[in-house]
Amino acid sequence: MSKLPKKHQFIDLSDYGRLPARQIAKALKHTSVTPINVTSSFILSGILAVICMLNNFAIAAAFFLILKSTLDAADGELSRLKKMPSYVGRYYDSIADFILNFVFLLTFWYITDGSLLLMFLAFFSIQLQGTLYNYYYVILRNNVNGDMTSRIFEDEAPKAMEGEEQDKVDAYFKVFNLLYSFFDKTIHRLDKKAISSKPFPNWFMTITSTLGLGFQLLVMALALVFELEIYLFPFFITYSLLLVLLIVIRRVFL
Questions:
Q1: What share of the chain is helix, strand, coil (3-state, %, to 5)?
Q2: What domains appear along the chain, each with residue ranges and CATH number?
Q3: pLDDT of 134 higher than 90
Q4: Would you put residue 163 in left (φ > 0), alpha (ψ -120 to 50) or beta?
Q5: pLDDT at residue 1 above 80?
Q6: Are 54 and 110 in contact (CB under 8 A)?
């Protein structure tokens, strides 16, 4: 099930794991496995990627990074198949992504003996990039009656969905807000009027999708396979220029 009506579906270059994710979700539909269980499995895949990186198993590390990206899509697919939307699951997923992203870059810093400053700048860059992609994607979904699980403004804890405990939603939201509020507010300040714009064209969203987490993990995997780890931090920092360009395009032309 897509998050968007057919007319507004675009080629998401960050979502290359969607097809296998759907197969995984279908296989798990009639089992006791929950979407949160799948989220936990992508955390395990991320940990295995780090272990492989630390032991110079580059191909295996790349595999687990791509598997992590695929499982990251599978939890949402399973949630929709089982009709189990969950704010706890949504925040758990995002919190796990944030922490794993930091650990991945910290591991790249360790194995390359690179600059700690560049590592933090790269982390800051990929978080801003991913936030812009999510910002535009959520706005689009809201504007065309797509999936509404994510909100444009995450400024207060939402009302728990059926089957959830409000206390858990509140607790997970506090952690989520602590990690993401700075990046969310920064992107919103840079393009406040995006919320009232017409639905973004598909080509624009396809380009924007290269700022997404899946694409970032693909870049990390390729850097490992082709032994280009030392160029990873400069790449992510420089790639933020695309973020600026996309905001300019949106504000001036869309």
A1: 75, 0, 25
A2: 6-253 (1.20.120.1760)
A3: yes
A4: left
A5: no
A6: yes
Answer whether 46's CB lies under 8 Å from 103's CB.
yes
3-state secondary structure of 164: coil
Q: Among 106-115, 117-126, 137-146, name the one with the lowest average pLDDT.
A: 137-146
Instruction: Among 103-107, 144-148, 239-243, name the one with the lowest average pLDDT.
Output: 144-148
The two tokens of residue 15 are 């979502």
11-49 CB burial, b ≥16 within 10 A, e <16: ebbbbbbbeebbebbeebeeeebbbbebbebbbebbebb
39: its two tokens = 């989220």
Q: Identify which of 170, 134, 128 has the alpha carbon closest to the alpha carbon of residue 149.
A: 134
Q: What is the pLDDT of residues 49-79, one digit of tens each?
A: 999 999 999 999 999 999 999 999 999 999 9
- Nearest one of 38, 210, 16 to 126, comparing CA atoms: 210
Distances (CA, A) of 243 to 154, 210, 234, 250: 21, 10, 15, 11
Residue written as token pair 């790249």: 108
Q: Which two tokens stand for residue 9?
A: 């579906």
Residues 88 and 164 sit within 8 Å (Cβ to Cβ): yes
Report the alpha-carbon angle 99-85-43, nearest 5.
Answer: 25
* Average pLDDT for 32-61: 97
Residue 214 gets the label, from left (phi > 0), alpha (psi -120 to 50) or beta, of alpha
How many CB atoms within 10 Å of residue 125?
A: 22
113: left (phi over 0), alpha (psi -120 to 50) or beta: left
The candidate with the shortest Cα–Cα distance to 96, out of 56, 139, 37, is 37
CB proximity list for 99: less than 8 A, separation 6 or greater: none
d(CA 248, CA 87): 32
